[in-house]
Amino acid sequence: MQFKPTIIALLGIATAAVAQAQGAWPTKPITLVVPFAAGGPTDVVARTLGAAMTKSLGQTIVVENKLGAGGTVAANYVAKAAPDGYTFFIHHNGMATAPALYRKLAFDPLKDFEFVSQAVEVPMTMLARKDFPANNLQEMVAYIKANQSKINLANAGLGAVSQLCGMMFQRAIGVQVTEVPFQGTAPAMNALLGGQVDVLCDQTTQTVPQIKAGNVKLYGVTTKSRVKVLPNAPTLAEQGLKDFEVVVWHGIYAPKGTPKPVLDKMNAAVRTALKDPDVIKRMDELGAEIVPDAGNTPEALHAWLKAEIDKWGPVIKAGGKFAD
Ligand code: MLT
Q: Is the distance from the beta carbon of residue 301 to the nearest atom of ligand 1 less than 6 Å?
């Protein structure tokens, strides 16, 4: 008997929370968690979309960079966050590669999240420091092979696409060099610009301005075909690295249990942002492709993530690089 008032009070709070989530949402700023460093490729996409979504939602999208363990610290944080409609997550292929890379992953990418929408796809570029003694991919490969023990390859940790691309590159050319992990490719790029590391595979959303300014050497793009933003850059595959392909894709997620009406409104806000002329222009300048509208459903993101987990699992297991 004495529990009754407490139960009634709790029910009242829960009902109010659901009503607020479903009706007036959003009534306060929304956090969009980014799993890598500020200023890097994922952050650029998040902030560009966030600015556009702020316009249509009438509330600020606050980007929060939660760093560590190749994106898994942030994913675990969001998986355990309150499903109140005020925490969302943007992540890339790392959602699909983490289950194969981490033996003790504390979240299940397919079960512990709600799915909002896909967003953009981004090519990667194979780069070296400006004074690297190689002027094309053949020379680069020959130099790396001859100096394996001295080469430092930067990445953003196990689970980062820079790590995935670097791993595939080493395997394709038959070398094993020293990998230097950062908490995002923004600091990795700084190390490349400063000459503290030699090689970095990174997304055009960060690398295009550095390539165009001549601050780094470019050896090719990781897509099947050449990309519009760097028309003179050959693909790695056309230069002899057969079937080499890494395309980065971004999805938006929420903690499991986030109310459906909120997810629907967030999905609509993402779709509206992807049609915003400022977003289109910025993504175009940085080589990112906006995912066509039909692909931007929660179901499409779920199906895509599942297919990517199935695709990358065996590739990663063959690579033999794991963490606990
Ligand atoms: C970043 O945003 O820093 C990159 O996406 C990290 C990565 O290489 O995956």
A: no
CA distance 324 to 322: 7
For ligand 1, pick from 200, 202, 205, 248 the residue to mutate: most ligand atoms within 8 Å of CB. 202
- For residue 125, how far is its CA from the centre of ligand 1 (angstroms)? 13
- Is 161 in the same domain as 189? yes
Q: Which residue matches tokens 């009706």?
A: 23
Q: Is the CB of 98 under 6 A from ligand 1?
A: no
Of 170, 201, 221, the residue at which a domain comes to its end is 221
- Quote the CA–CA distance of 238 and 180 in Å, as a whole number: 28
- pLDDT number for residue 269: 98
Q: Answer for the pair 225, 236: CB distance below 8 angstroms, yes or no.
A: no
Cα separation, 316 vs 320, in Å, equals: 7
Residues 255, 110 within the same domain: yes
Q: Which residues of the chain have pLDDT under 70?
A: 1-23, 319-324
Q: Is the CB of 161 under 6 A from ligand 1?
A: yes
Q: Ligand 1 test: best mutation among 33, 34, 42, 183, most atoms within 8 Å of CB?
A: 42
- pTM, two decimals, is 0.90
Q: Tell me which residue has its CA closest to atom 8 in ligand 1.
A: 162
- What's residue 321's pLDDT? 60
**So what's the pLDDT on residue 320?**
63
Same domain, 94 and 160: no
Is-contact 124 203, C-beta < 8 A? Answer: yes
Q: Is residue 234 part of a domain?
A: no
Q: What is the chain's alpha carbon radius of gyration, rounded to the nearest angstrom?
A: 21
| Same domain (yes/no): 136, 87 | no
| Domain interval for residue 280 | 26-121+249-319
Residue 186 contacts residue 107 (beta carbons within 8 Å): no
> pLDDT at position 9, please?
45
Residue 161: the pLDDT is 97
Q: Going by CA atoms, what residue is nearest to atom 7 of ligand 1?
A: 160
Q: Is residue 150 within a helix (H) or strand (E), and if so which, with residue range? A: none
